[in-house]
Amino acid sequence: MKFAFVFPGQGSQAVGMMAAYLPTHGVAPVIRDTFDEASSALGFDLWDRVAHGPADALNQTVTTQPAMLAAGVAVYRLWLARGGLAPTFMAGHSLGEYTALSCAGALDFADAIRLVRLRAEAMQSAVPEGIGAMAAVLGLDDDGVRAVCAEAARGEVLEAVNFNSPGQVVIAGNKAAVERGMLLAKEKGAKRVLLLPVSVPAHCALMKPAAEKLRVALAVIEVRVPSVPVLHNADVAAHATADEIRDALARQLFSPVRWVETLFALRDEGIQLIAECGPGKVLAGLNKRTLESVPTLAITDAASLAAVLEKTQA
Questions:
Q1: In terms of pTM, does the model score above 0.90?
Q2: Model pLDDT for residues 203-246, shown as the tens digit of each residue
Q3: Exactly one of 12, 39, 93, 94 is catalytic; which is it?
Q4: DSSP-H helix ranges across 127-174
Q5: Which residue out of 203, 232, 239, 255 is catalytically annotated?
Q6: Which region holds residue 121: left if phi is over 0, alpha if psi is between -120 and 50, else beta?
Q7: DSSP letter string, 245-277
Q8: What is the pLDDT of residues 25-38, one digit of tens each?
Q9: 199 catalytic, yes or no?
Q10: Active site residue 232
């Protein structure tokens, strides 16, 4: 069976999110070992932050990004330890792209952990809190959302940045422009518009200064050819050289997440099953609304991991 693993990004984190993967008595060594590696790279106890919170500390982007990367890698390592096969393709939503690249062997895990921490710091410093915003627009098509952004920008940054599923697009930019866009989207017939609880307007032009800092960091990190092709957010392509991967990761910060196109590309490659590898079911929900012909299963605990194992080895 040709199957793909996809990795979630920010928004799927929760205090205690790894507990469901652990046996009733004791701790799965591969899970704790992964978090111990991450803690060593970061210089603080990431497992304690994930297991016990508080939620406010876990939800700070400089903690969330390493935590979600470690969670995805830990679940993938558990998958391999249980006899799971390598998937045919991988992809990740925003931050999840780094998880995919680490699982595919393109990035050393410790390097990836430090890199996403730097990424989070660069994103936060590029746009001071309160200057930028993001909002989800539900019920307008892609071109309709782009038209709203063009009309409401008024000289500021306002862009469609996450094409998550048909009729669900996230906009980002200067806070005032986002607020104008929200009002205009409602006027244009959007069923619902939601301001997102984030402090950084990701994937828009305001992130270009952060991307330059990221390029500097990427230049000194070893990047290898992935053992499994990874589709990148910025161009829906799998890259085979280190420089192409570095460039795609830098561009990702100020480019839209083309998730709908990513799913269609996986379908066109003959993928028969998609597994969301990591806490939560956000991507499984998006995928269900986008790609009815290819089922998506979320590996959220030991039981669902076993179910996906059975399907992929049948």
A1: yes
A2: 999 999 999 999 999 999 999 999 999 999 999 999 999 999 99
A3: 94
A4: 142-152
A5: 203
A6: alpha
A7: HHHHHHHHTTS-B-HHHHHHHHHHTT--EEEEE
A8: 455 799 999 999 99
A9: no
A10: no
